Amino acid sequence: MLLNARPSRRNVAPCDSIPTPRAARPVAAELMNKEAKTFLQRWLINTVAVLAAGYVVKGIHYENVVALFVASLFLGILNTFVRPLLVILTLPLVLVTLGLFMFIVNAGLLYLVGLLLKPNFEVQSFGAAFWGSLVISLVSIALNALTGTGGARVRVDSRRGSKPEVPNRKDDGNGPVIDV
After folding, report:
1. Alpha helices (runs of H) in the chain, residue ranges in sequence order
2. pLDDT at residue 1, rounded to an integer
3. Coil, strand, or helix at residue 9?
4. Which tens digits make up the pLDDT trace of 78-125?
5. Is residue 62 part of a domain?
6. Total Cβ atoms within 10 A of residue 140
7. Does residue 23 carry a pLDDT above 80?
8. How far, in Å, CA of 52 to CA of 140, rounded?
9. CB–CB of 30/38 below 8 Å?
10. Taken in order 49, 75, 57, 142, is the CA torsion positive or negative?
11. Residue-wise pLDDT tens digits, 4-20
């Protein structure tokens, strides 16, 4: 008798407030699209930076556009996984040189990409890798600032004619003054 009993509708809680997998799909798709867009934007910026290094630095050569994209992808992967380990291992040198040793780490990673992709993407010397990594860094910083990728923002304020208003304060005037 109890086995055949069915629960009444009055005893079951409504399921309207519980998100269903279908309701979660647009949020997940939107998040995936945003992450994919950010990844592709950073990869494209890195590719343009490697392209600029190929034009500016004489010792960096690539066969075709596919090799350029693959080299920038490898450089991004090495920067994501290997660079943090190198930073930890070389931390004393980075601290003593006030961060200038990071140029050597970046050059080493670019040289390693050149060794891994030797026939299609070539970095002829460590000096070319050094100057190439410097060009890649500068172009990446500029493009990230222009596009707003990577947390870089550029803001230009223009003030003409009048001076900014200073609020009336009742102090002795001996505090710090920053006039820009």
Report:
1. 21-56, 65-81, 83-89, 91-96, 101-116, 126-147
2. 46
3. helix
4. 999 999 999 999 999 999 999 999 999 999 999 999 999 998 999 999
5. yes
6. 20
7. no
8. 10
9. no
10. positive
11. 555 555 555 555 555 55
Evaluate whether residue 43 is within a structural domain: no
The count of residues in the chain is: 180
Cα dihedral 145→79→129→125 (10° resolution): -170
127 and 40 Cβ atoms separated by less than 8 Å: no
Asked if 144 and 45 touch (Cβ cutoff 8 Å), the reply is yes
What are φ and ψ of residue 122, in 5° steps? -130, 135
| Number of Cβ within a 10 Å radius of residue 96 | 10
- Structural domain tally of the chain? 1
What range does the domain containing 101 cover? 50-149
CB contact set of 79 (below 8 Å; sequence gap of 6+): 109
Residue 159 lies in a domain: no
Question: CA-based Rg of the chain, rounded to a whole angstrom?
Answer: 27
Higher pLDDT, 169 or 119: 119
Alpha carbon separation from 169 to 13, 108, 127, 173 (Å, rounded): 61, 56, 58, 9
d(CA 108, CA 153): 29
**Could you identify the residue written with the tokens 């090799």?**
67
pTM summary value: 0.68
140 in any annotated domain: yes
